[in-house]
Amino acid sequence: MHEHAPKFVDKATDHVTNIIGNTAPVRAIRKSHVLSAVLGAVGFALFIDGILKLFATFPAWGSLLLGFLMMCATGLLLKNLGR
Question: Is the dihedral of CA 59, 41, 9, 12 positive or negative?
Fold first, then answer.
């Protein structure tokens, strides 16, 4: 990876955050914990719905096995998070 890439990504992220963060709707959402929670819950629901549709073609046992492996991987990642 190029050594200037992280700096470029940081600058781009700051620029987009400054542009989007200064709009009235975003300021209203940031001030309200309820609106933030609703927005996050709807986003999470849409994300889960997309995953369900993505894996709809898997047989039931395949989904169970894949889910179990993903939970194991998540557990290992969370275990190592405190290091």
Answer: positive
